[in-house]
Amino acid sequence: MRAPRAGWLGILATLATCAPTPFELLSFDVADGASVPVNRPLVWEFNRPVAPGSVGSGAFRIVRLEDGSLAPGQFFVEDRRVRFEPQIPLRADLSDAGLIPSSRYRAEVMALPRVRSVRARDGSGLERPAVYEFQTPALSAGNPVFVDPSPQIGPRLTGLSGKKVDWQADAATLRFSESVDPRELAKAEFRLGGPWSRSLHPEEDPLLDFELVENQSRAVVRLTPRGGLPAELEPAGDYWIRLDPRFLRDLGGHALSLEDPEPFLRLRIR
After folding, report:
1. Which fold does the domain 22-135 belong to in CATH?
2. Burial class of residue 238, CB neighbours in 10 A (0-12, 13-18, 19+)
3. What are phi and psi of 126, to 5 degrees?
4. Model confidence, pTM
5. Which segments of 33-166 does DSSP mark as H helices, in order?
6. In the CATH scheme, what architecture does the domain 157-269 have?
7. Is residue 146 a contact partner of residue 39, using CB atoms and an 8 Å limit?
8. What are the sequence ranges of the domains in the chain?
9. What stretch of H or E contains 78?
10. SS3 for 85?
């Protein structure tokens, strides 16, 4: 005996209702062709939680169209969202930035049947790939290339003990509360003061070389003597580093905030 036609239609409708919703990309937070600051995070949102293991397998690619290089940075999975944090540059020419100024980029999201495709936590793969293109601001005078993660607040020195910085193995390390602009840091001057210093001739104090060794979320600057020191530093001696806050600026252009009006840091000799 055949089932009534309406019965078969009802069964099919029930099966369709029970079928799993395809894993889909809902949005990308950059409009196609838009200009994106070189430190701005990129965010994709899906309709279901994303499997973290699929993100690091090449399922996402940020490609610089000028040379085909992949943008350095880190991917983070936040439930249904995937966030790309571009590498913050260390070099003054910004050539090591995750997103290089004056460049065009293509953001690619891989889908099935590629093995390296983004997947949901339940194992289902993305069925449709996605491609977006954007550009970064031109590196020219007065043109902002960064977005300021902390508007209206300048960087602060952190990790100081009693307003002193440790001098250990002929080096001092300055730690800041946020990233700094490498272009401004390149103009900075650090000098080491001590018993040899003459107040009317600060330019005679020995220069310190500096290296920006970290800058992703907080800047770290390592200072070392340029050439030799005038004398061996004694633990009981009085020594200081002279800073120039004008060139210690965050990505928004705000200068270093100092508690004291004089731009000095006392040393603790280790």
Report:
1. Immunoglobulin-like (2.60.40)
2. exposed
3. -70, 130
4. 0.86
5. 52-54
6. Sandwich (2.60)
7. yes
8. 22-135, 157-269
9. strand 73-78
10. strand
